[in-house]
Amino acid sequence: MRVLLLLYIASWSLCCVYCKKREGEDKPTWAKKDVRDYTDADLERLFDQWEEDEEPLEPDELPEHLRPRPNIDMSQLDFSDPEKIMQMTKKGQTVMAFVRVSGNPTAEETKEVTSIWQQALWNNHIQAEQYPVDDNRVIFLFKDGSQAWKAKDFLLTQEKCADVTIEGKTYPSPNEKKLNDEL
Fold first, then answer.
1. Which residue positions does the secretion signal occupy (predicted)?
2. Domain with 105 in it: what CATH number?
């Protein structure tokens, strides 16, 4: 027992001696500064040093502007259908769709209706996040832009949807046209 205690004390004292912080040895001049005195260049060097041994991120983990663009097969494009071209070119990009709810709904009614639509889209494997803009207007955000046109087709079939705007083009709902014709 005594031997173990002596070994423990000896190893602990060795650790204390060799783990002592050495003043100024093996450090570049910029690293000897106080952190509050670092310039942007010093911080950039420190960041580069930090990232040196890091593995590169997977493409789906990169920010959108750094992700590789999917290849588009131009032979499969039907140039007579501009919507199909937009759908193919927006694949993998974030796209927003502005959806207007018909009538004069309150903000709470709009939230309720659009939440049902969002759930229906999710059930159909179309990932969309919704953000209210006005009492009767909501933004649906699609991480994969090609899904926005599929969602548009679904939303335009809904009774309370007035119109959908994607990439600056407004698609009126057939239900809204019927209401206007009746009035």
1. 1-19
2. 3.30.70.260
Q: Give the orientation angle of helix 82-89 with respect to helix 146-156, to 10 degrees.
A: 130
Written as six digits, the tokens of 85 are 């071209």
For the chain, what percentages of helix, strand and coil (3-state, to nearest 5) are there? 50, 15, 35
pLDDT tens digits, one per residue of 52-97: 877 888 887 878 777 777 777 777 777 788 788 888 888 888 999 9
The helix (run of H) or strand (run of E) holding residue 62 is: none
The b-or-e profile of 104-129 (16+ CB within 10 A means b, else e) is ebeeeebbebbeebbeebeeeebebe
Q: What b/e sequence results for 12-33 when a residue is b if at least 16 CB atoms lie within 10 Å of its CB, and e otherwise?
A: eeeeeeeeeeeeeeeeeeeeee
Residue 171 lies in domain? 89-182
- The pTM of the whole model exceeds 0.90: no
Residue type, 139: I
- Residue 96 to residue 11: CA distance in whole angstroms: 63
Helix (H) / strand (E) element for 172: namely strand 169-172
